Sequence to fold (839 residues):
Amino acid sequence: MDLFIQGTLSLFGNTTSIMIFFLGLFGGMLFGAIPGVNMLTLGAVLLPFTITMDPQNAVMLFSVIYCAGVFGGAITAILFNIPGAPENAPTCLDGYPMTLKGEAGKAIGAAVSCSALGGTVSAIIMMTATGIVASFAVRAFGPPEIFALILFGLAVSASIGASTLWKGWLSVLAGLMIATIGSDPVGGIPRFSQGSFLGLEYQSYYMSAGIHFIPMILGFFAVSEVLAQAVNIAKGTRSRPQASIEFPTIAEFLAVRWTIVRSVFVGFFAGILPGIGATLAAFLGYSQAHRWSKNRDNFGKGELEGVVACETANNAATGAAMIPLLALGLPGGALTAMIMGIFQIHGMEPGPLIFINSGDLVWITFAAMFWANLMIIFLGWVQTKTVVHILRVPFRWLAPGILILAVVGAFALRNLFIDVWIMFIAGIVGYMLRTTGYSAAGVVLGLILGKLGESAFAKSMQLMDYNVLGFLQRPISAVLIVVAAVIIISSIVSELRGGHLQRALID
Amino acid sequence: MKTFKKTALAGLLAALACTASYAEKAMPDMPRGFGNRPLTMIVPYGAGGGSDQLSRAMAKAIEEETGLSFQVVNKPGGGGTAAIPDFMISPPDGFTILEHIDTAVAAYAKGDIRENPAEDWIPICIAQITFSQIYIRPDETRYTDWESLMAYIDAHPDELSIGILGKVGSMELVTMQQISDALGLKVRQVNYDKPAETYGSLIGGHVDILFEQPGDVRSFLDGGQMKPILTFLNERPGVFADVPTHREVGADFEALTRFRGFFVKKGVAADRVEFLEAACAAGFENPGFAEFNEAKYMNLVQSYRDRAGAVELINETVGVYREVYEQLGIGQ
Fold:
């Protein structure tokens, strides 16, 4: 506690530090909110300047950008169905339908509060348990356990957003198939890269990079939404969403308290594992909430619980990601790698000795993340009262803006134009998916989990000498796989017993 | 094995030639019509990685030395191949520079890309060259150095696993193939695709041995989480004077290196190429860049090659890859 107070005092001890703190907070939120640029863009731009900064200010700046950036993307996800950053993608699923129902303020309010809550709780766990948790996670979770975790995620993802379980599974399988495009994770063997069926001169070069999920998300959610709204306008059935600035009530938060607890846990856990991170945390948080919720059938139609689940989980992953970074020197993602770079620039090496050698700096990081998360509540409250008024802009002005943002977002990902084409194709396909009861979210989940899962599976096979039963000989992976199997079987059984019929009657 | 010896000799001669030609050239005058707008530097890997850090450091150094300015653009994907089309369709005016690494050479040798980095591109310099090592956990009790590791592997074949960050046909896997052929190593290979996960797998005990370059794991070496037991280089580099080289333990081949350099397209006017070559040489000598390279352990072997030296290094590397690929039956 003394260390935390010391960290806080040096954080707010002079005006320069305070200015840098707020620069990081606003900068992170702004860059997080604009699709195409994200906190990584801001980080890459600012990194050279940190050389001349005080080490404590530099580390603090990046910790704050990290927390604020993960939250910032939620706003465009909720208002326009455009996730500002990958980790906000599942926020679209329920956030945007809430906007359509005139509950934008409530959705943003929930996103703000839950981001802050998830981030703060994970910062507290980080402060108390970094050393122990880090060594446990890195020892207990090898490729087989990660594969089992991903399988578990897939087991629950079929039920998201589709009109029947079968359509859900077909959507997820389609995503898994798209994930196989590109070089295979071990052999580097190109798949679907031969020939020139797209008529591009350098087709095999692009295809070897595979299909990235960001242009898919932008197409499925933003472009197809513009198409759907345009169709509604043409039919004369569109009603403009109300720009409410109402915050969720305490009672509404209490009602989803278990979702919050679960998401903190899921998010924190996903954040610790190197290479998993906030995006998967958000998706897993969402699919877990959907699995256990009483209002399961309202998911995807504007359920507050859905927004709560992913925004809690992705911010909970921020504190967790600092644990392997600080304790073992293992950055889980690009921004944490930049933070590691800052430590190194100033002559400090993250790793087991960092608490002894540069303890003060570690506590400044902890304090900065804690306060940044708390500040999100205040800033978010101001934003809720102001940003939602954008919705008053007529759709004929808004639609081109959304498309421009989406194009910029798809291009800026890798600065490759092919991603823009993929986005537009995904937009048209996405429109067809949503009018036929298939699930765009399922396809995206299949794509993300498919890439991670195949890589983990291939490594597991090499590790276990190609003995598939090895997955059941390791306790953690065995439990996860068994639970996944039970979930899949029970959902199929209940669907066969007439779940489909029940749902049809409710609808 | 014969060809390896030949390559070794050629490599040695090339190295000598390069050292001789390695002298700072006087900065020529800025060619007419050049440098009046920022140059684009394409990085075929993501922000924050080794190539990105090098490109930004070099861009900054050249800006300081020559007054040129750069816009660094990351185009990651496909292990460095997705960026190549945009480079190839850019006009050959010297305003677009591509950073690339030895992976492009392997991709060319394998037939994954059509462009020969030594012919279809003009290397303006190589700015980082490093070697690989084999690491174990310092608290490992079953073996403590290369000799005891070999004894352990002989007694327990196929029990140990080695973590490698690389795909089939990569520099990493080719080197492992070479050492396995030379010494009859019986270990299981696990191919990783993300650095953090790879390093975590050794520290967390999922694999027993790790193959990497020292600059990438420097923090773990300094922090006492990893210990080098073998260096893939002909001579022991100063910092690792107590670690044996592959030649000393009986593996007779010229080890491949990891190198990163800068290219323009074929067809760029000669005076512009010459200017950029001189700019790159001056950037390499820039104190800030030198400090950067030292921090990345890129000062342990001569890390600079001029245009001729780079072409030589690339051609020689293509030869080694082709030979190994033929043995393994991969590529075209």
In short: Chain A has one domain: 2-506. The mean pLDDT of chain A is 82. The beta strands of chain A are 182-183, 190-191.
